[in-house]
Description:
The complex is a heterodimer. Chain A is α/β, with parallel strands linked by helices. Chain A contains twelve helices and twelve strands. In chain A, α1 packs parallel to α7, α3 packs parallel to α5 and α8 crosses α12 (about 295-305). The longest helix of chain A is centred in the N-terminal third of the chain and has 14 residues, at about 1-15. In chain B, strands 1-2-3-7-6 form a five-stranded parallel beta sheet, sandwiched between helices. Chain B has a two-stranded antiparallel ribbon with strand order 4-5. At the A-B interface, α3 and α5 of A face α5 and α6 of B.
Amino acid sequence: MRRSFVHTLIELADRDPRVVLLTGDLGFMVFEPFIERFPDRFFNVGVAEQNMVGVATGLADAGFVPFVYSIATFASMRAYEFIRNGPLLHQLPVRVVGVGGGFEYGTAGPSHHGIEDVAVMRALPGMTVIAPADHAQAVAAIRACWDLPGPVYLRLGKDDHVLVPNLDGRFRLGRAEVVRHGGDVAMVAMGAVSAEVAVSAADLSENGIEATVVVVASVSPPPVEDLVRILDGFATVITVEGHSVVGGLGSLVSEVVAERGLGCRVIRRGVRCFGDGRGGGHAYLDNRHGLSRRALVRTAREALVGLHTS
Amino acid sequence: MPAAEGVLLGYSIRRVILEQSKRANVGHIGSCLSVADIIAALYGGVLHVPEPDDPDRDRFILSKGHAALALYAALHLRGWVSAAELDTFCGDGSRLGVHPEHVVPGVDFSTGSLGQGLSYGAGAALGAQLLGSRRRVFVLISDAECNEGATWEAVMFAAHRRLANLVAIVDLNGQQALGPTRDVLDLSPMSERWRAFGWDVHEVDGHDEKRLGGVVAHLETVSGRPHVLIARTVFGRGVSFMEGQIRWHYLPMSDEQYAHALREVDDASCAAALFTH
């Protein structure tokens, strides 16, 4: 989604002189087209995420629409209090872009794994939180949110090729997108792992299990009414996210189910342990944390026969 | 504002600080008194702020937000905060809390968490440059805020971007929450540190309103390095029993202490008025 992001940003910057881009010294082989086009609107602030958000706050107060860019962990957590007391408290249009949710930075290790970014951003009242499922949806989301008056957290995946079947680049703020219909189980996905959820649903179908697959990219505002409508009638809902099961999509769906009194059981698939010393690549880590196609098929099958316990 | 009033502004601000902190029964009095003359210099002529919403006004960020009462006093004396609103200080439902909120007319940025204001200021200064505006950005920080790493991120950024329209003022009173700065985390030599980071450094007496204004008037704020005024101040300045006494970071005043403090400030004000005339 990084290249899609940059090309969409160039499109917006062409249209709106308020758009500026700040980076915490990241974006090699990504930002060159923007820099070439708008050399005076690109600021590498160095490895200093707190100051980057502080500077963006001052720029936004002066009338600019600053996009600040770093890896999801650094963008969301190193600068967290600056985001809270700066653009959030002042309701200024700073766009915090965190790249690489979940285990996308694989072998880079736990310091680079974005497993709490959505939770901490979701906790901020007034923060728009967007986690696109693929690069086409990212483009639509950026176009839909760039001009909002308040701050936005945009969680971008690294991949620029894989598409979620039937999503067709749809994005609506406060809405969920259904990409597959089935009556046996509902699977709700957030972020880049959504493609894996879609293929696992296809696998399940070959085994006679039909799943509805829902993509939630608009985390805040949450698609409450869509979820109520879609999940009503299902006995089992499986949430899938490259993120901690606490505070992210699993929590969001559980809150909706509990608050609205839906009669379904929620099984949360996501990260439950951190830094156990067993590293590896993205696919390996996703599989270990139950986020691979195979693991998701197993989760759904076990859930439907009542074997699933967590 | 007439010159005589300008000279007296520091005393007027002190009086409001004492009155309101007594009425609301709150502390942070020493910190407010420490910056009273700096705020007086800023609002007595240094800052170009015809109206709080003038788009090309100079920006001011009180990064050491716990001295907000000194700022409210100046905003009141400039006529932007009414006496009635001033009397809501620290009350339920009031806009005027211990730390300043941007919803108050004349407050450009909310502060309270130390070490954030200089970054806002750097962004505001960069924004002004990008827009071709001659407005300047003033950020008042405490010496203890220089404990925060983020302050130095902003210091490096401002120097690298040559934000000549950014003026930091360090309230160098040598006190922080649990003791003298030299004992908690030694910040000396303060001026050399800023100079080494590429700033234009001026050491000033933080209680000399006129001199402060004079130094700022001669700063080159169109191009070149960002500026810092290392303002030597006395914590609790103007009330003898508070000067240099860390407990006045916390304590509210008793009736006796209040009467004593008011008397000292009023006497000093009379002496200054005689001297001025």
